[in-house]
Amino acid sequence: MYQFMLWFYIYSFLGWICETIYCSIPAKKFVKRGMIKGPICPIYGFGALFVITLLDKYRGNIFIIFILGLIMTSILEFFTSFCLEKVFNRKWWDYSKNKLNIKGRVCLLNSTMFGSLSVCLIEFIHPMISMIIIEVPIYLLNKITRGILAIFIIDTGLTFLNLYKTRKEILN
């Protein structure tokens, strides 16, 4: 269980780094990404766990991982966008200017990128991270994971409280 939680944090952090770089380069300035204050994007953590859990058995079959990863992450991104918009009355991203998008929630360019990232995750990144985590003594793994969990819960709770207050102000 602690391994899955630690994987979630690691991939949420790596996703935050990638997305921050991806958005900061064209803006030519630092663009902090993610809805919570800390340096993580939970959608990447959930996406990575989703991909690892369902696609690790296809390791070595890059085409299958790419296609299924593209589909799975696109569904996750669409569903997440829809839910966040309904809950907070705000669009968190909008691909409507991109070609081949679906309601601005997903687009072919990003879906292709996520399919490619799924291949990288299954074939290279996850095996390496798993090997590193296995070397960490279980008692230390538990302490690290619990510490990160406490910070994550506080950060997420405060973020959602602030977003809920903002939503109420907007609707009133």
From TrEMBL:
Q: What is this protein called?
A: ABC transporter permease
Q: Where is the signal peptide?
A: none
Q: Which InterPro entries does the UniProt record give? A: CmpB_TMEM229 (IPR010540)
Listed A to Z, the keywords are: Membrane, Transmembrane, Transmembrane helix
- A Pfam family annotated for this UniProt entry: ABC_trans_CmpB
Membrane-crossing residues? 6-24, 36-55, 61-85, 106-134, 146-164
